Amino acid sequence: MTFFGLAAVNDLQPGEKAERALSRWKDLLFSVFAFPFVVVLFWTIFAYDRELVYPASIDAFFPPWINHAMHTLVLPVLLGEVLVQPHTYPQMSHALAALAAVGVAYLSIVWVYLTVGVWVYPLLGHFSTAGLLGFFFFNMAVVTLLYLLGDRLNSQIW
User: Which SS3 state, helix, strand or coil, does residue 105 take?
Assistant: First the structure.
């Protein structure tokens, strides 16, 4: 959502200097945060055991179309973006720093558990402390691989 808002502002913003700065931020957001990690991880776990990430009891509050809007629709939109708009991918060190910052921020879901006693994703309740660390490191590796895939795909198309 942030990426597409920034892209719209970039298109409306007058001035070459401001446009370049917004374009760099837009490219960073797209390349590091928008590429389809959520789609891949969510649907992989959902296919294995739905109850681990999106329990059936949630359907009473969030109908299936909302689930698909959050976890499926983003993929064709992002692939469309790759096909119609070239992006300048940031240096690997900058991308990894941004990914690490988001990964650390995402660990706030552990704070939710410690505060409320409920895991945001039921899957996390099945892990030991070492298992949680391994799961988070695995996710960071997948995100990094998706960044590299996006960079390669962007290079091949543009």
Answer: helix
33, 37, 41, 38: which is closest to 7 by C-alpha? 33
What secondary structure letter does DSSP report for 123?
Answer: G
pLDDT tens, 53-109? 888 888 888 888 888 888 888 888 888 888 888 888 888 888 888 888 888 888 888
3-state helix, strand, coil in the chain (%, to 5): 80, 0, 20
In 39-49, which positions are buried (b, 16+ CB within 10 angstroms) versus exposed (e)? bebbeebeeee
Cβ-count burial 112-141 (b if 16+ within 10 Å, e if not): ebeeeeeeebeebeeeeeeebeeebeeebe
Residue numbers of the domain that contains 20:
2-157
Number of domains in the chain: 1
Instruction: Please list, in sequence order, all residues whose beta carbon lies within 8 angstroms of the beta carbon of residue 87, skipping any fewer than 6 positions away.
Output: 26, 27, 30, 31, 154, 158
For 45, the token pair is 């776990």
Question: pTM of the full predicted structure?
Answer: 0.71
Q: How far is CA 84 from the centre of its chain?
A: 20
Burial of 150 (0-12, 13-18, 19+ CB in 10 A): buried
Three-state SS for 128? Answer: coil
